[in-house]
User: What shape does this take?
Amino acid sequence: MPQLYDIGIIGGGLGGLTLAIQAAQQGYAVVLYEKEEYPFHKVCGEYISMESWNFLERCGVPLNSWELPKINRLKISAPSGKEFSYDLPLGGFGISRFKLDHALYETALKLGVKIHTATRVTDVTPEDEHFMIASDTVSSNAQVVVGAFGKRANLDVKWGRSFVQQKATKINNFIGVKYHIDFPQPLDTISLHNFKNGYCGISAIEDNRYCLCYLTTAANLADSGNSIPQMEATILSANKHLAHIFSTARFLYEKPLTISQISFNKKQQVMDHILFAGDAAGSITPLCGNGMSMAMHAGHLALEQIGLFLHHKISRNDMESAYAKNWQKQFANRTATGRMVQRFFGGTATELFLSVVGQSKFLSRKLIEQTHGSPF
Assistant: This one.
């Protein structure tokens, strides 16, 4: 019989790794499955709200010694090219997932977390009071299982999760494209440039590089003959700021990283006694810039209830219901606000929306506060 772990985690992104680290710090036996090999790049905006700074340091990441760019200004351009500027009261910092995830992975290993890389989980099945986690190469048993496997995974399809079965709409059929570039933008500024049915963010990361990541519809790509370069040359470059970036920046990837079938529909936080964290539990639209902080915070919330269950202070059902309730309390309004704001981006209403928000410091601050959390 495979070893019985206290906690089994599927997915080694920020939510999964920080949950594993916290659990190991508290003495729990943890196994984690990740389908890739560290270090690796991910499609991600790579801007993290300052709400997560202290938490990451508690997880063993030496952020202070890395001299990362601090970001406190937001510039947004409408598809027409007209620009608007805003302050970011809490602010954030830039760091690549290549660097951050690898650092967390190494910390988790030092703490005794058993990590299976290049291993795809194929199913999770209940057995008495624990679960069997099956993969293509190795299996494990765990008392509690947490799915932290991103926006859409093979398990979502296998388990028939509700958001997978919904028809394609304006909020559930996106593609994401990411590059690292060399481009002269102020280190303290994140830029968000709108184009037809999409938007593109540019912000500084470590080593004087910049992350360029954009989100658009699958229809835009289809209209461009399924050619990313063609889409960038026509649809994105209709915005003069993006035209300048794509014609003058030095692109550091031979080809971009991509992800498809991105959905921002509501998701369950618990299903068949499996807890979900990170994007598997619910995604905030990338223009809000807080998906990574939400992923880590969700793992933190999950562990509070998991610990009570493992110490026999609450039942499994109480653990699940309390976690779902706490997730909704912390994130439901943020994700809903993100979906609402996204409807005004990448279309004809963008400039009017930005003009109205830009003329009211109260309104702009309120929207930013609604999509950000507090340090945890």
Observations:
- The chain has a mean pLDDT of 90.
- The chain is about 35% helix and 25% strand.
- The first strand starts at residue 4 and ends at 10.
- Residues 4 and 141 are 5 Å apart (CA to CA).
